[in-house]
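Researcher: Next entry in the queue.
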Amino acid sequence: MTTSHETQQENKAPPEQRCDECGRDTRFGSGLFVNRIPADVGYICPDCAALDCDRCGEKIEVDHDITPERVYPENDKRHHQDFPALPAEGKGSGWRVHFECLTKEEEALFEANPDNYFE
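Model: Structure for this entry, 119 residues:
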């Protein structure tokens, strides 16, 4: 919940320093400065830039989405295909997913790739 103090602080930010989507302050010291993304007028905050997981619909943190290209090697036909649906788990198919939405096989392949890491 936004307090009146936070609203006053946000309103003091010049337009080019506010999130283009939600209007929150993205200036240095706001807590949103490091992960803000340049946009049309100013920036997009990390919450507004989060993507939807194609399997579960939850938000995926910036730079934490996983695509088939990061799971399957280039010589695997699945490298350029959507992840399959998991109807037994109520999860759909799609291109971008959470780590938590990977199957055990997908997770093992992802972790075996030394180029894959999260901070």
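Model: The first helix runs from residue 4 to 12.
Researcher: Noted, moving on.
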